[in-house]
Amino acid sequence: MNIHLTMKQSQLYDYTVLLVVAFCAYLLATLGTQGVLQAKQAVTSDVPTAAGGPRKDKATGISFEGMEDKMELMGVGTRKKAILNIYSVGLYVAPKLRKQMDTLTGPARCQSVIDSKASKKVQLKFAMGIGPEKIAEAVSGLAGVDSQVRQDFQTMLIDGMGEGKMKKGETMSFEWKKGLETISVTARGKPIGSMKNKALAQGVLDLYVGPKSVSPSLLDDLQCR
After folding, report:
1. pLDDT tens per residue, range 44-89
2. 91 closest CA partner among 204, 212, 199
3. What distance in Å separates the CA atoms of residue 144 and residue 128, rounded to the nearest whole number?
4. What sign has the CA pseudo-torsion 38, 39, 40, 44?
5. Is the pLDDT of residue 211 over 80?
6. Which is more confidently placed, 74 or 164?
7. CB contact set of 34 (below 8 Å; sequence gap of 6+)
8. Which residues contact 174 (CB under 8 A, 6 or more apart)?
9. CB 65: neighbour CB atoms within 10 A?
10. Per-residue DSSP letter, 48
11. What's the first-to-final CA gap in the chain, in angstroms?
């Protein structure tokens, strides 16, 4: 009798062990599956990529550094004309503006860039050759800006870029420091001039991060829509 009970107890023990092992295997498999899903979600999620890291414009393959002049890269996009990719564009902002953006969602994120007095920069990296006149005309054609101011800005851009096309891979940047009163421009890494005019400075910024951005893909990457 005691032997019979001992055998039954042994069988029960073995059965319990098998149940525990099977349960542990199930938990491990479940957690492993969730881990894979979480990793996939981290890559494809609509949550903005952490600022400060290098990014690549998928449409052109052009890369942007994570930091520029102590400003953090927030998003990248493409300026298209019909089927042509003209240039890639990256938005850099001061750390305090980045922190503000991180608390917001949708259009409010880009509106904070427009409203903030913190430093910011829009960097263009050309995906094809394009003449200075065409660039200047496209950038300076702003509504609500005095015609003479637009003309002066266009002249500054053309003179600063010099003769010959902006070549593939070359850069141009627009920068706003401590407010929207003044816009500074660099081309091929060299300063070409600044202009103090609020309507002009805000108009150029709005051209890229406003609701009617010339680069909708930038707005998407910034999670502003």
Report:
1. 333 444 566 899 999 999 999 999 999 999 999 999 999 999 999 9
2. 204
3. 30
4. positive
5. yes
6. 74
7. none
8. 121, 122, 183, 184, 185, 204, 205
9. 13
10. P
11. 77
